[in-house]
Amino acid sequence: MASSGFSWTLPDHPKLPKGKQVAVVVLDGWGEANADEYNCIHVAQTPVMDSLKNGAPEKWRLVKAHGTAVGLPSDDDMGNSEVGHNALGAGRIFAQGAKLVDQALASGKIYEGDGFNYIKESFENGTLHLIGLLSDGGVHSRLDQLQLLLKGASERGAKKIRVHILTDGRDVLDGSSVGFVETLENDLSQLREKGIDAQIASGGGRMYVTMDRYENDWDVVKRGWDAQVLGEAPHKFKSALEAVKTLRAEPNANDQYLPPFVIVDDSGKAVGPVLDGDAVVTINFRADRMIMLAKALEYADFDKFDRVRVPKIRYAGMLQYDGELKLPSRYLVSPPEIERTSGEYLVKNGIRTFACSETVKFGHVTFFWNGNRSGYFDETKEEYVEIPSDSGITFNVAPKMKALEIAEKARDAILSGKFDQVRVNLPNGDMVGHTGDIEATVVACKAADEAVKIILDAVEQVGGIYLVTADHGNAEDMVKRNKAGKPLLDKSGGIQILTSHTLQPVPVAIGGPGLHPGVKFRNDIQTPGLANVAATVMNLHGFEAPADYEPTLIEVADN
User: Fold this and answer.
1) 340 Rama class: left (phi>0) / alpha (psi -120 to 50) / beta
2) Dihedral (CA of 162, 307, 492, 39) sign
3) Where on this chain does Mn(2+) 2 bind (predicted)?
4) Rounded Cα gap, residues 362 and 222, in angstroms
5) Where are the alpha helices (DSSP H) in 80-142?
6) Euclidean distance between CA atoms 557 and 515, whole angstroms
7) 195 torsion bin: left (phi>0), alpha (psi -120 to 50), beta (else)
8) Which of the residues 4, 74, 81, 329 is marked catalytic?
């Protein structure tokens, strides 16, 4: 690296002093949305965050925390904690999701990783099962990725392959399933000519089979389990093409809601149930509609439906779908390798760093912040503290979580004078928001706000600087909405609760007695996002950011 003139030394900022303590606070799942009764941040008493928002307008702004701003394929993709903290720490946007899979397939790297080598152990005596959305929509999966994976696996020893298809009609035109099945059948027949026993084993429409999300309706996943794993379904056909054409001919049928079917041989036996010793890969790259199936495939302790038979399998996801749950534990494509993160630069420039959260988000403020890298850069200059999260209860039972304890640790670190940067994640808005319990989420938001006060009071005492932000939205909108933004109702007339992240922007607020009086947010950045925060933090420490970082959010006006 040295030969290219690379240096870890950051240039001094021409106008901003060094030596101020900086507190970086990430409120997890804290977006900005219209004020109504389903916006728990609005409903909750949050005087501290309100004062930041309603204080000096040049010290508070919104940034984008989803879609292309965090490296995801499209702006229909909600942000998540992993990609959010990657962007916050890295200061640049790295490919996530589909782009990452494309790169791994193109380079062949996918076949060298731990995940592929794990499932490969089943190739000799077992079947490789590929389960996912059959579509070129590019939202959850892509047909060309499935085609490449089929080719690659068969060239690397898979002798028996079964594909369990889910028809789309949501991200692509209804009826396009027929063409996708024809394409896939053609590929599989070419594999059979090469002596590989490859065929479609089951199917169903994505909204009725397998691809539920947010634990909305476990029956959807069970219908998939019965067809894919047990080889049982109400409809049996000799071929998938016949299945899709026949089921589509029913009145009011469409691709999204095709009933589950299995493919059977001449004796009426299912051609591809999942058996002991088999390998299973869920091929979707987008997480939200694979997580429930992943739980059913991976968890020994599972009570959402009766699985009847739980085969001993080797299971891997295309990607890891949930970094907090570490689900699935095996995956074919690893997160991006991110070099030269802001954390590493700052430590190498003498910034003594303290990072803290509770278990569920500790990895985000360390591992993901540091570019998907474990451990310290320099243990003489860093201290990471993990406070154990509550276990054995859902987070809405104790919605204050460990916010107070995290804030107290941060306060003590600031007042100790031993650290130049104190970085925390307050998980409440996200973890309680995911439970869908509105009252508990209101309590959670109030607790997070109280934690921010403790930290900002300490910053005030030492004459320091603060930057408060979030990684994505959640608690600010707890209801599903129609196109006009009105809450959707369920069959009984109640509101449909939204437990997921959102597409909303998130706040960034700066301040503190140590902040140079001329500092204000710039208004010349086209679409600022989370990745612009890293250069901003470097500036607050008195440094210029590296040239390839996304630009800083702040400028210094001459007094």
Assistant:
1) left
2) negative
3) 28, 81, 471-472
4) 33
5) 81-90, 98-107, 114-120
6) 13
7) left
8) 81
Let me know if 81 is a catalytic residue. yes
The annotated binding site is made up of: 28, 81, 140, 170-171, 206, 213, 286-289, 361, 430, 434, 471-472, 501
**Which residues fall in the annotated binding site for substrate?**
140, 170-171, 206, 213, 286-289, 361
Given this model, what pLDDT does residue 97 score? 87
Two structure tokens written together for 196: 């590989």
| CA atoms of 62 and 202, how far apart (whole Å) | 46
Q: Is 163 exposed, middle or buried (0-12, 13-18, 19+ CB in 10 A)?
A: buried
Of 518, 397, 522, 399, nearest to 449 by C-alpha is 399
449 with 426: CB under 8 angstroms? no
Q: How far apart are CA 369 and CA 82, in angstroms?
A: 8
Collapsed DSSP state (helix, strand, coil) of residue 152:
helix
Type of residue found at 504: Q
pLDDT score of 1: 39
- Give the model's pLDDT for residue 393: 84
Q: Are 74 and 67 in contact (CB under 8 A)?
A: yes
For 84, the 3-state DSSP assignment is helix
Tokens of 154: 């068969």
Q: Helices then strands (H, E): number in the chain?
A: 16, 16
Low-confidence ranges of the chain (pLDDT < 50): 1-3
- The Cα–Cα gap between 427 and 117 comes to 35
pLDDT on residue 199: 98
**DSSP secondary structure code for residue 375 in this structure:** S
Report d(CA 124, CA 117) in Å as an integer.
Answer: 13
Three-state secondary structure call for residue 191: helix
Residue type, 90: A
Rounded Cα distance between 145 and 279, Å, is 18
What integer pLDDT is reported at residue 272 of this predicted model?
98
Instruction: Give the pair of three-digit tokens for residue 370.
Output: 């540091």
AA identity, residue 168? D
Residue from 444, 554, 545, 559 nearest 509 by CA: 554
Q: Which residues are annotated as a binding site for Mn(2+)?
A: 28, 81, 430, 434, 471-472, 501
* Cβ–Cβ under 8 Å, residues 338 and 90: yes
DSSP-assigned letters across all residues of 486-502: PBPB-TTS-B-B--S--
Please report the pLDDT score of residue 559 as a whole number. 64
In which order are the strands placed within the sheet that holds 235-237? 235-237, 261-263, 197-205, 160-167, 128-134, 279-282, 314-317
What is the rounded CA–CA span in Å between residue 170 and residue 432? 30
Q: What is the dihedral of CA 424, 429, 434, 440, to 10 degrees?
A: 130
